[in-house]
């Protein structure tokens, strides 16, 4: 079962608890700390474009990359409604390509956890480093092992909305460090409101520690700058459920000097 196909249709409905505006304000503050007040910024795993839209409104020239055609169709619809100048690309983050470099890369909503092999995530980081301007910045968040073990693992989450509902069954394999989500959706038919279509998807995420992230960033050529308890300026703790990381591009200045 392919992820983010049928779920794309109702993704924004069930993600309405995500404080995109607050997170975007935080990302803007961090970017400005590194001197990035405008210019090209890319979002990895942009989904339906909620964060991409807000950062575009803040004055950044946005590029959004996602590997779900269904999600990007919704992002494109938002773009057409708002008239924002955003470039969306249907690409896998493990092998994305750009025409040039960007000033910053951002990734939110634990997208990097969907990369379940360490060598693949190191390759993602290598590509990020490759497409960043000299001293460019990479800001991303990830779910922690604590969250999978203590919060999500072996839990069933269910929500019922007016036109749709879902059952999200979690299973965390501590040995493999993989969290499996089995998602069952019931979506109201537009033609006949008394009928609901049932969809099922499987999602897999890998649990990473901060130390692993630092090692993989280094393997990808990036310089680790800082880590925070998600979208704060506080240091991460053993009970942090989400961590925000800042990293820097490395290597281009040396090549330019040569």
UniProtKB/TrEMBL annotation:
It holds the Pfam family Methyltransf_25. Residues 41-136 form the Methyltransferase domain. It comes from the Bacteria. Keywords: Methyltransferase, Transferase. One of its GO terms (molecular function) is methyltransferase activity. One of its GO terms (biological process) is methylation. This is Class I SAM-dependent methyltransferase. It comes from Dorea phocaeensis. The lineage of its organism: Bacteria, Bacillati, Bacillota, Clostridia, Lachnospirales.
